[in-house]
């Protein structure tokens, strides 16, 4: 086995992941997140991403677990992601073993890290949330999930625009005001570093959550956001009360191959949420970024979920594929 072992505990040896480990990682990732797994697409970029640590756990040479951490917030925080354990090892405490080792290893590499953060999915209908041990809940958002064929998006956009006209009372033939596309780097910087932004758009836990990664709106995180190639929309060019973006759609294993299209929204105004949703669908269609089957997840303030659900109903080409669920934002000290 190439590479070098960086530690061992409880019968496992630990290794820093390399590109050559891809097939082994995929072999323990079958049906992770119900086919919505991002790692098949992101693994290669994780291997070269600055301040990213990916740890593998092996038992007798066989890969049994993976855990990753990204150092953010100017070196003060690690965002943990990607945890997975092979099916034959689940329920044996392997997840806890690799998490403890990863925490120790990351602190050796980055002594300034004081906080560990993560996001997780929660289904409120299943009963009270089982918050992870020693973690504090900083916030939660609602998630609205759809599925449809990319060929249906043009009709869905027309459906949304027609509904916008009726709900805003616009006269026939008069266009509904568009959200503002934020493309200028300095303009976006001014918006994100405004100290009043977290309260004005009600950032959950004071963080911008980008595709499940919580980042404080501080200068040190702007480069991380910039390399995500996000498309930003706001209700106005300065001091917005509603801010949203979408992550470029990426392939996932769902039903043999689909695309995942994630939209993150911050703010509480329903009309702005409707305009943003229509705007993001228009942009992703104009750029021809989607094809085939597309899974759409919209993360938003809980107060907007019902209104946006109603707004999207009535078009058969894009249908809701999951009942109400939530995204939790958690934190603990290292």
UniProtKB/TrEMBL annotation:
InterPro entries: Acyl_CoA_acyltransferase (IPR016181), GNAT_dom (IPR000182), Hisat_C (IPR056483). Pfam families: Hisat_C. GO terms for molecular function: acyltransferase activity, transferring groups other than amino-acyl groups. Residues 12-204 form the N-acetyltransferase domain. PANTHER family: LOC100145250 PROTEIN, N-ACETYLTRANSFERASE 16,-LIKE. This is N-acetyltransferase 16, like. It comes from Salmo salar (Atlantic salmon).
């Amino acid at each position: 086995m190439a590479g070098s072992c960086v530690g061992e505990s409880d019968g496992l040896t630990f290794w820093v992941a390399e590109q050559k480990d891809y097939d082994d990682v995929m072999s323990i990732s079958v049906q992770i997140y119900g086919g919505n797994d991002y790692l098949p697409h992101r693994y290669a970029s994780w291997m070269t991403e600055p301040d990213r640590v990916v740890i593998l756990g092996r038992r007798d040479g066989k890969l049994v677990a993976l855990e990753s951490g990204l150092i953010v917030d100017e070196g003060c925080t690690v965002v943990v992601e990607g945890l997975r354990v092979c099916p034959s090892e689940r329920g044996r405490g392997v997840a806890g073993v690799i998490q403890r080792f990863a925490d120790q290893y990351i602190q050796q590499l980055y002594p300034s890290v004081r906080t560990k953060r993560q996001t997780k999915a929660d289904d409120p209908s299943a009963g009270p949330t089982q918050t992870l041990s020693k973690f504090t809940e900083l916030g939660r958002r609602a998630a609205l999930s759809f599925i449809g064929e990319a060929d249906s998006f043009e009709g869905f956009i027309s459906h949304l625009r027609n509904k916008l006209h009726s709900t805003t009372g616009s006269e026939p033939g008069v266009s509904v005001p568009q959200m503002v596309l934020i493309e200028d780097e300095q303009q976006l910087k001014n918006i994100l570093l405004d100290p009043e932004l977290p309260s004005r758009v009600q950032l959950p836990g004071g963080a911008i959550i980008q595709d499940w990664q919580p980042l404080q709106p501080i200068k040190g995180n702007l480069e991380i956001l910039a390399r995500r190639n996000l498309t930003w929309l706001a209700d106005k060019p300065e001091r917005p009360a509603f801010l949203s973006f979408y992550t470029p759609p990426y392939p996932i294993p769902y039903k043999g191959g689909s695309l995942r299209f994630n939209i993150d929204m911050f703010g509480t105004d329903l009309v702005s949420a409707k305009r943003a949703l229509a705007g993001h669908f228009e942009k992703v269609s104009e750029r021809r970024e989607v094809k085939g089957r597309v899974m759409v997840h919209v993360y938003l303030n809980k107060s907007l979920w019902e209104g946006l659900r109603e707004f999207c109903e009535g078009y058969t080409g894009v249908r809701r594929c999951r009942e109400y669920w939530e995204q939790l934002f958690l934190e603990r000290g290292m």
